[in-house]
Amino acid sequence: MSNTTADIDNIKQQREKELEAWLPITSSRNAKWWYSAFHNVTAIVGAGVLSLPYAMAQLGWGPGIVVLSLSWIITLYTLWQMVEMHELVPGKRFDRYHELCQHAFGEKLGLYIVIPQQLMVQVGSDIVYMVTGGKSLQKAYNTLCTSSGCKDIRLTYWIMIFAAPHFFISQLPNFNSIWIISLAAAVMSMTYSTIAWTTTLHKGIEPDVQYGPRSSTTPGMVFDFLSALGNISFAYAAHSVVLEIQATIPSTPQVPSKKPMWKGVLLAYFIVAACYFPVALIGYRMFGNSVQDNILISLEKPAWLIGVANLFVFVHVVGSYQVFAVPVFDQMETFMVKKMRLKPSLRLRVIGRSLYVGFTMFIGMTFPFFGGLLGFFGGFAFAPTTYFILVGSLRFAQPLLELYNRDSIFLELVESKTSKKYDSTSADESSDESKKRKAKNGEAEKLKASNISASRLRIGCFEVLLAL
Fold first, then answer.
1. Which Pfam families does the record match to this protein (predicted)?
2. Per-residue pLDDT for 429 more than 50?
């Protein structure tokens, strides 16, 4: 029986290894440190950078600078925490965000906490990128094509044009296979950000510029404030793919993956600062509270440069879409293989990923105002996964988890030794000798009982915290 059980376990482990070698997150672990740099730049510096002047207008100078600066510092710190916790347990790598959360909160609770929020961030971002990519193509076309023969093309068709290459790019097997696309996207993000703030600076301050509140009513100002927080949190929302990016980097006891990953993160965040702060501050300084929600809309001339900048945005969101889509593909394919009992194959991959691209395209076409919901999504999912709840809870839960495991082992040992001791006592000793032994060890038993009670109390408190 024991041999049969061992054989079954070996078969399960072998199948698990084969699945991990097929899934897009863990199938390739030969990434360089600079891969993490431009993957993070592509994920962080989305088209949201173009809305930062608008967020500044909603907040004002003081709160705007404080929120933008604190967001940069806090998200860098929480990202460092995640990089450190990737190999929190010796000999094990948490290759996915939900695996880390499951380690802290348990298999089921950890999954229920993180998966809905992570999918909301990733799928929501991909839908926004569908709309943004279509709008960028439309703006480039309308700006560059000024002759009488140019026809007005609906946004729906531009979204379909943007989605078309994704049906093919999405079939690339893993993160490392899209590094060239991610590199191009990172370069494009720096380029159009530079175009945005340098062109704004060259244009100069608008006549009669104002920096007062955009809204005249208290509810309006509160709404603007909360919407700005959501937009800024969206601009920094890349933590949901950090562990997946780090999973592609090789790790050894001498050089753990956190060292090259952190090097790439620092370079990425330097680029983020170079993109975000000039665009936000110069854009708000020049246009004031009349700035549009996309700084490129406020810039009308030179037309050719604005058109080219929109094409750069298109290239960038192609890469951003893929960076956020790969973890979704990983979860989809894991579910289809483990839960639906489907065989890992190229056909399964093509069908599943094509359906996902089609789904995001359909939602983008149906709700082209989806980007207007960024404030809601920013507060509901981007902020928790990026700023505070999960990572802070993981740091809080880890020492409790260690204490829980220690106390559980202690109770098991005590119960085992106690049962063995009393079994041997009843067999080898008379009742008088047993009473003398119990009296002699009375104080020791009381101390042991106190320790057992304390351990059970700590375990109970830990289980209550998990239930909450």
1. Aa_trans (PF01490)
2. no
